[in-house]
Specification:
heterodimer; A: 293 residues; alpha/beta; Rossmann fold; 4-stranded parallel β-sheet; B: 325 residues; alpha+beta; Ubiquitin-like (UB roll); 3 domains; 13 helices; globular; binds iron/sulfur cluster; binds FE2/S2 (inorganic) cluster
Chain lengths: 293, 325
């Protein structure tokens, strides 16, 4: 197989509040011999909030990010569900609307850039599944997670709207019964936990303006995983991670029940199974301690 | 026309049963049926009633995806029974199919729910044209095709409630308008003839309005008419800024804060965003922030990473901004 190479859009969270996500992404890429070229010029995608204020500006900034991936001639890989949603949504809108694309390009030309539509945008989870292959992961596992029940938490923005996501990756995901993360858990030797909240929302995006709603959703998710005997949760999204890992106190208060589970980033789970050390994967950066290592 | 042969397969149905007049608790009844590839979910409901239990109750009228009466949940997914093919459902969920009302909490009899909260929210969104139109006009009130496009199909909503009862916020916060009411509000806010002043203010109010939407896209996923309510919600946010009715509160500052941050760093300054959004209320975040700090999860302002070619980003913000707050 040819060496896989992607343009990496890190997003902001991996550079700030989830340093462990950046560390484990790079560690896993090294293990899998995947080359990631970091798009250091990229700006924030606006996290689905900037567009509420200024839709056109949000399109221009996201198109600029993709234009840098195009300059490298590479597929863009994201490591955050919301980055994936915003970037892929921008691509979708520009590719199907030449008039809008022209307006955006008129602005980008002021800084010598152009959005062509030549680079695909795909979340790292699906790059691994589509391009690398779970069979190969399975073969490479040296320390299977066979002693653990692991609850997948998919995060809304990787599975809904399904029409959008079906454009970017080959693996077709049923938003009502997603399987990719379950398959990945199994490939890493773990036991996947089925629970009602696995495809539900964690409430991250209204944490400031509607803290009660956000806390109930997080609480329900952790409680659902716990009640189905999960030892830990795993997520492909750093925002879900922040919510599930750092907000257990407000979540417990909101649902009137003490809940807390260690939460791994998808990259950390793969890293563990492939034999990376706890230090390489940044496990010490979790608020809810990863106590089984 | 496809010439596919009609196929038949065995499906096990687990069906929600409840009669508020006689039951204390709901229960599930099992029916096993041969289902053909031609059938829709409503055909199954009919056959349960006709072949198994005449007391089984559900709503339907048009059988053509127009009246909005027949929405129920199939394996947790809101759907229009008369439009949803059984083949698709079996493809999605396999041969074990659970049929439930849109909201088990609001069940009255089997699939029939009390949709009162839905209609209350719908009415509160002023779902009609407010305009000074001459009662005996001498000519039509024409709307150009270009202006009509602004509605973006929001007028196709059949009030089936599928999105409303799929929305996690509706479940938690009884003040929340919900996606269908927002779509209705958008339908009239985007109508050039409308001159209501209050509607946009109401749907932007904290606790009940668009700012409490968690952006989960459940509503977009379920809508049988492809209305995409979350997209209409986004447009209501934008309208609030454009028409100057956006209040200065934590929700609006949270949206605007992204711009400030991107202007300064290219990237988002997470701490800076919380501070900008919350103002003095930042204190309530201190306990969690301290925990995060101890785990190396907080970047100090003087260490904030910046995007390369920040000048490009700043130039684009200057030239491409379309809104002021
Ligand atoms: S979604 Fe979050 S992490 Fe991703 S770019 Fe936007 S702000 Fe940054
Ligand atoms: S699950 Fe939470 S963080 Fe993840 S996409 Fe949904 S709201 Fe955002
Ligand atoms: S996107 Fe918003 S309105 Fe739609 S279902 Fe989710 S929370 Fe409700
Ligand atoms: S927006 Fe769609 S799902 Fe919601 S009530 Fe209208 S037609 Fe039904
Ligand atoms: S019966 Fe009218 S919409 Fe289904």
């Amino acid at each position: 197989m040819k060496k896989l190479k992607y343009a990496l859009f890190t997003g902001c969270t991996a550079k700030q509040s989830t340093p462990e996500q950046m560390m484990s992404t790079m560690a896993v890429a090294r293990k899998l011999d995947i080359e990631l070229i970091e798009l250091t010029e990229a700006s924030c995608c606006g996290a689905s909030h900037l567009q509420d204020y200024d839709d056109f500006l949000s399109l221009v900034l996201n198109a600029r990010n993709i234009a840098y991936a195009e300059k490298h001639g590479l597929t863009m890989v994201t490591i955050c569900n919301t980055c994936q949603l915003n970037t892929a949504m921008t691509k979708h809108r520009l590719d199907k609307n030449p008039e809008l694309k022209a307006r955006v390009n008129e602005k980008l030309s002021e800084v010598g850039l152009e959005y062509k539509g030549t680079s695909n945008v795909i979340h790292f989870l699906y790059a691994i599944i589509d391009d690398f292959g779970l069979d190969k992961i399975r073969e490479m596992v040296v320390k299977p997670l066979s002693q653990f029940n692991i609850a997948p938490f998919y995060g809304c923005h990787n599975i809904r709207p399904s029409e959008l996501h079906d454009e970017s990756h080959k693996q077709k995901e049923n938003p009502y019964n997603p399987t990719s993360l379950d398959d990945l858990i199994i490939a890493c030797g773990g036991k996947n936990v089925d629970y009602e909240e696995k495809n539900k929302c964690c409430g991250f995006h209204v944490e400031l303006q509607a803290p009660h709603t956000a806390a109930v959703l997080t609480g329900n998710a952790i409680a659902g995983a716990t009640d189905n005997n999960a030892d830990m949760m795993v997520t492909p999204c750093p925002l879900c991670h922040l919510k599930l890992d750092t907000q257990t106190k407000s979540a417990s208060e909101a649902i009137g029940r003490e809940v807390s589970l260690p939460v791994l980033h998808m990259q950390q789970m793969i890293g563990l199974a492939l034999g990376c050390s706890a230090a390489e994967l940044g496990l010490k950066h979790h608020v809810t301690e990863v106590n089984f290592i | 026309m496809s010439t596919n042969k009609i196929s038949t397969q065995k499906v096990n149905f687990k069906v929600f049963r409840f009669n508020a007049d006689v039951d204390y608790l709901p229960y599930y009844e099992n029916y096993t049926m041969d289902v053909t590839s031609e059938e829709v979910v409503l055909d199954v409901l009919n056959r349960i009633k006709w072949d198994h239990d005449g007391s089984f109750s559900y709503r339907r009228s048009c059988r053509h995806g127009i009246c909005g009466a027949c929405a129920i949940k199939v394996n947790g997914r809101s759907t229009l029974a008369c439009k949803e093919s059984m083949t698709t459902m079996v493809e999605y969920f396999g041969n074990e199919i659970t049929l439930e009302p849109l909201s088990t909490k609001r069940a009255v009899k089997d699939m029939i729910i009390d949709k009162g909260d839905f209609w209350e929210k719908h009415a509160a969104a002023t779902p009609y044209l407010v305009a000074d139109i001459d009662e005996c006009p001498s000519c039509e009130n024409l709307v150009s095709p270009h202006d009509a496009e602004e509605l973006d199909e929001a007028d196709l909503c059949i009030q089936c409630g599928a999105c409303h009862y799929a929305c996690p916020v509706v479940e938690i916060n009884s003040d929340f308008f919900g996606p269908a009411a927002f779509a209705a509000a958008y339908r009239f806010e985007s109508d050039v003839r409308d001159n209501d002043k209050q509607r946009l203010i109401d749907v932007n109010e904290e606790k009940q309005g668009v700012w409490d939407c968690v952006k989960c896209f459940e509503c977009a996923e379920v809508c049988p008419k492809d209305i995409n309510p979350i997209d209409k919600i986004t447009k209501l946010h934008q309208m609030a800024f454009k028409r100057g009715v956006a209040k200065n509160n934590v929700a609006t500052r949270h949206a605007v804060g992204f711009l400030h941050s991107i202007k300064k760093h290219g990237m988002l300054d997470e701490g800076g965003l919380v501070l900008y959004s919350e103002g003095a209320h930042i204190v309530k975040h201190i306990p969690v922030a301290l925990q995060m700090f101890r785990k190396g999860k907080i970047v100090m302002p003087w260490n904030m990473p910046k995007s390369d070619n920040l000048d490009e980003i700043q130039k684009l913000i200057k030239s491409s901004s379309t809104v002021k707050f």
